[in-house]
Amino acid sequence: MQDLSSWVLQTLRRDASHPTWLEERKFEWIPLLNNALQRIFNGESVILITDNDREWFMHYVVQSVNRYGNRPYIPIVGINALFPQIDKVLHKDEVEIALVNDYFNSIFAQKYFFWYVGRNDAPRAKLALSNEDGFLWIFDTSFQNSFTLQSVDPLVDIKLMQMYRIFNLALEAVMFGNIRLR
User: Fold this and answer.
1) Model pLDDT for residues 87-123, shown as the tens digit of each residue
2) Quick check: pTM over 0.70?
3) Which residues contact 146 (CB under 8 A, 6 or more apart)?
């Protein structure tokens, strides 16, 4: 059984999608990945939120993560499925965000975290950033404990897909006992 760091490096070097750029940023990526995986395997659910420009990514992840029936289902759900009126609510004051968090605390018995993909100035980011310790893929701004991408990068959509691919492969590797988490 390998540790996550060794497994990620080996996978990045051998993967068919050639995410070599991610290896250069392994010190940012691996701790975030490790934290998200630990939380999932400790029974927490994941609420995936994106800004409007990356909503396609949310739909792709939600539709694909549990597509294959050869493993247990992973509790990842898109924000729109849980709270369809989220965009209307987030244009209001901070009290609304607290009420939304209370709602999720009730649904998930306080065992959830946000996976946010998007700009930090998007309305949905307010909700995602209202809870500490999320799985944050932030565009154009650097935050502590987040992975920063540049929206002007012509390959950014490909990079998102590569990151998701490695995340999904890591989920499976942990699930089947091929890697251990710290």
Assistant:
1) 888 776 667 888 899 999 999 999 999 999 999 998 8
2) yes
3) 32, 136, 137, 138
* Total Cβ atoms within 10 A of residue 38: 14
Structure tokens at 35: 């934290």
Rounded to the nearest angstrom, the gap between the alpha carbon of residue 87 and the centroid of all alpha carbons in its chain is: 20
Q: What is the pLDDT of residue 68?
A: 74
Kindly state the helix (H) or strand (E) to which residue 30 belongs, with its residue range. helix 26-41
DSSP per residue, 59-124? HHHHHHTT--TTSPPP-EEEHHHH-TTHHHHTTS-HHHHHHHHHHHHHHHTT-EEEEEEEETTSHH
Mean pLDDT calculated for residue range 36-54? 96
Cβ–Cβ < 8 Å for 2, 16: no
Cβ atoms within 10 Å of 88's Cβ, excluding its own = 11
